[in-house]
Amino acid sequence: MLGGGGFLGHHLVQGLLEHGGFSVVAVDRCVSRLVPCQQRWGDNGNLQVIESSIADLATVETLVEHSDVVLSLTALCNPALYNTQPVEVIRANYGDLAPLVDLCAQRRRWLVHFSTCEVYGKPELQHVAADVLQEDSSPLVLGPLHRERWTYACAKQLLERLIWACGAHHGLPFTIIRPFNVIGPQMDYLPGVDGEGTPRVLACFMRALLADEPLPLVDGGRRRRSFVEVGDFVEAVIRVLSRPEVCQGEVINLGNPRNDVAIADLAEAMRRTYAARGGSHGAGVRSVSSEQFYGKGYDDVDVRLPDVTKARRLLGWEPTTTLEEMLPRIIDDYVQRYGDRVKGPA
Ligand code: UGA
């Protein structure tokens, strides 16, 4: 598992080992999230943690050689980077990974690649209804070059196309997973505490709550996202790995269309849940323009709803966790890890 120390990676490591029947080699440049897994499973031989980068091709080659399945999770995936560090974003999401695809094709290893719902881009540009983001029929619609937001989606899409081509023409067994806004404990980082810059919306809101600052609503928080809980997501991936006969050669959306919410309503739900668990009622919300918040070249998609018919059919999977169920656990985790490390408003 390349990128096994990240948000999705470490939840997957834990899920696979709890499920049983898997032996995991988790590789990442930063492995701190994996320490509890190492403590629990490090000695039984089913987990090996390697601190390394995918740029170390010799290590990657040896690992691919000795694995049945290669899960590829490394990415630069914070929207704040897409227009501020676009070259790094393109390299990390395409250039660094193209050699891995070739390697898996040469060795005929099953590559399970974690792509993104962002490849669907901005369907409203072509008047495509956002509730039919379907793996095998929806167009992938990106904005013009000066809208650098789309560097990520474009790099991810090109990698998907390389994987597909290697599958169709060079015998690569593959599965492409498109996650739709997975959230859960230990996501991203908190700016000023264990990272810098702007993380994704959940961590931005958590930092504001803990600091007793207004939650920043980009363009008033009118955009919508459908959030899937990380436990539901992990369950689906375990089913993918257990069903190669139906999942190889497929692109699969993993998300929860029932948890579709406007970002302003997510902010309210988080404020309510935080207060109900003993936190302050907070300093409210503030609206900020996307250009002020993310800088020039940012763009956004209004609505993003997965069609999960294929996941249901292939995996017998149904995401069940509601926002009301997941938020208390996520908020408790942030409070426990960061509560005393976030300073109040200046
Ligand atoms: C994310 C990222 O591109 C990827 O991590 C990933 O592929 C995908 O979507 C996903 O998580 O599956 P996005 O949905 O825009 O993109 O992620 P966020 O940064 O969490 O933003 C969600 C919405 O909240 C956006 O409209 C953003 O403008 C807004 N936002 C963000 C706020 O209103 N306030 C904030 O403080 C931060």
Gyration radius, rounded:
20 Å
- Cα shape: globular
Could you say which structural class the secondary elements and strand pairing correspond to? Answer: alpha/beta
Task: Please summarize the sheet with the most strands.
Answer: 4 strands, parallel
Give the strand line-up of the largest sheet.
Answer: 3-4-5-10
How would you spell out the order of helices and strands?
Answer: HEHEHEHHHEHEEHEEEHHEEHEHHH
> What helical percentage do the residues reach?
40-55%
**SS summary, helix count:** 14
End-to-end distance, in Å? 41 Å
The percentage of residues in β strands lies in 5-15%
The low-pLDDT segments are: none
Ligands bound, unique: uridine-5'-diphosphate-glucuronic acid
The overall strand count is 12
Arithmetic mean pLDDT:
95
Structure in words:
This protein is α/β, with parallel strands linked by helices. 41% of the residues lie in helices and 14% in strands. It has 14 helices and twelve strands. The protein has helices at 7-19, 35-41, 57-65, 79-82, 86-95, 98-107, 151-170, 201-211, 230-242, 244-247, 263-276, 290-294, 309-315, 323-338; strands at residues 24-28, 47-51, 69-72, 110-114, 174-179, 182-183, 215-218, 224-226, 228-229, 250-254, 260-262, 285-288. Helix 5 runs parallel beside helix 7 (151-170). The protein is globular, with a radius of gyration of 20 Å. Uridine-5'-diphosphate-glucuronic acid is lined by residues 77, 79, 116-118, 152, 179-181, 200-201, 204, 216-218, 221, 223, 225, 263, 300.
